Amino acid sequence: MSSKIPSSFFSLFSTSDLNVIDATIPKTEYIAIDLSKANQDLNSFDISSSIAWEHYITNYLKKHNKQVAFGGYLETRNLYNRSTYFSSQSETEQRNIHLGLDLWCPANTKVLACFKGKIHSFKNNTNFGDYGPTIILEHNINGNIFYTLYGHLSEASIKHLKIGDNVAQGETIAFLGDASVNGDYAPHLHFQIIKNLQGNLGDYPGVCNINNLAFYKVNTINPQIVLGL
Fold it and tell me: What are φ and ψ of residue 187, in 5° steps?
């Protein structure tokens, strides 16, 4: 059973005050990016290569004179075909629908707590194509309990954490990792808002298949709307 927290709950917050990466980067420096399988530009390079991805993202930001590229909630991607962790012989079992918001920017960028809360759990998810170092925060705001997940962090980000420690909204909780530790991706933050963690610790599906999409659409919130992007 998922939490009863409504999506409209997040409208109580000022989106201008909600950040998940370095708040000195204004949101006017963000630009949307399409990484779905419909984007023909992705056929021009090897999408299995994190180096090629980093070049693509860097050039995209340079072309548009922006600092952060964002997008991906419920986006169907071919990127995950490279990993047996996501792939399946059955098309309906193939995990290729992205459940969080990706924010693409350089390694070592500050990662911030979107809301006040506490450290729920953390883990280094080391499967190829997985999150790498990951932090999950638990939030209880006006009796509404929900969770935020921050994936693709640096290894140092989870070395000295303690479960139950309080965090303030906007507090720096981590730094972005590079491809050597973040699941072999160009540097980015995977940010996800989850109603019910279903007993998971330091991990929660960030990609689903078409068979499970209806559930995850109910059990997650669109981070792009919450952040006002």
Answer: -55, 130
